[in-house]
Amino acid sequence: MESTRTTTTTQLLVQHPEGDSVSPVCLTQQSILQVTLNGPGLLLTILAIIVSIQIFQPSLTCILLIVAPLPWIVHNDYVNFISLGPGGTPQTLVGYLKITILRMFALSDPYTPAELKGETYPSIGYYASHQPWLPKRSGPRPKIAGIAPQRQLDQPGSPKMYQLLRKTLERHALNHPDILHSGTSCFEKKGLALFARNPINKTCRGEICHVHHSDWSLHLNLHPDDAKVVLQNGWGERHPLARGGWLRAYVPREFVMIYAPRDRIELGVVCHIIEAASFWASGERLELKIE
Questions:
Q1: Largest CB tally within 10 Å, which of 51, 114, 239, 247?
Q2: Is the CB of residue 64 less than 8 Å from the CB of residue 15?
Q3: Which residues pair with 238 in a beta bridge?
């Protein structure tokens, strides 16, 4: 007898940084509470319960029954962590334990923007001062999983838009060499990122944004005013650890995930959001045109 297994699986076409080829990658997450038993496994479980009832006190037997599924739960959770792919945390047991501890401090509501605290510079966000048009994103929000890495599981972006975004960011850095430069993400330790040469707000070595190879979503830093506009219009959500305090050692309080663009219109909106991220990091208003 075998129980039904329910998983969330997304097939993505990923461009490798070494070349232009693409290959399918599946991001799979399963319920950590599910335990699948085949015939022998089910029989051994029943026998173990009978023996426990005969040997131990009822209270101890109940405790054993409660604790017994824990190895499977931990195994499923670890598999979920590994299946998200490489990111800012090593794919090791130590890395998994670190994320498990940090998970206890994760934001319960990633869709509510952070409140302004103390003196903020710039004093107002990019959208309040520049006012580009930011429409509402169509459809429901995609499913998001993980902390480090944090990835988008469904509503995959377009591979063409991903490649176009990479070219746009690289060209943007070349067009403003005194203000920007491109390189490998400081947060993720991999993937293309855009940096401010003289940052006015603390990020990770002035990182403005980075793009993920696995799901084509982005992480970036935004003024709290701009984050409010982005979150309210459904284009992203706050990182689970973006709550400030001692968690700033991992990500800034202004750290936001932006969903992968599915078409050229959405890519245009994402470019507007990157403009706002650039404003927060560098203080400069730089138009980002799609290449």
A1: 239
A2: no
A3: 256
For the chain, the residue count is 291
**Tens-digit pLDDT profile for residues 65-98:** 677 677 778 888 888 899 998 888 999 999 999 9
Instruction: Please check whether residue 122 is in contact with residue 223, taking contact to mean a CB–CB distance below 8 angstroms.
Output: yes
Could you give the CA distance from residue 289 to residue 128 in angstroms, rounded to a whole number?
20
Provide the CA 73 distance to its chain's centre, in angstroms.
22
pTM: 0.82
- Parallel/antiparallel/unpaired status of strands 144-146 and 22-30: unpaired
> Contact 3/34 with Cβ under 8 angstroms?
yes
Per residue, what are the HEC states of the chain? Answer: CCCCCCEEEEEEEEECCCCCCEEEEEEEEECCCCCCCCHHHHHHHHHHHHHHHHHCCHHHHHHHHHHCCHHHHHHHHHHHHHHCCCCCCCCCHHHHHHHHHHHCCCCCCCCCCCCCCCCCCCCCCHHHHHCCCCCCCCCCCCCEEECCCEEECCCCCCHHHHHHHHHHHHHHHHHCCCCEEEEECCCCCCCEEEEECCCCCCCCCCEEEEECCCCCCEEEECCHHHHHHHHHCCCEEECCCCCCHHHHHCCCCCEEEECCCCCHHHHHHHHHHHHHHHHHHHCCCCCCCCC
Which of 235, 228, 265, 226 minimizes the C-alpha distance to 136?
A: 235
Do residues 203 and 123 lie in contact, with contact meaning Cβ atoms separated by under 8 Å? Answer: no
Instruction: Give the integer Cα–Cα distance in Å for 285 and 261.
Output: 22
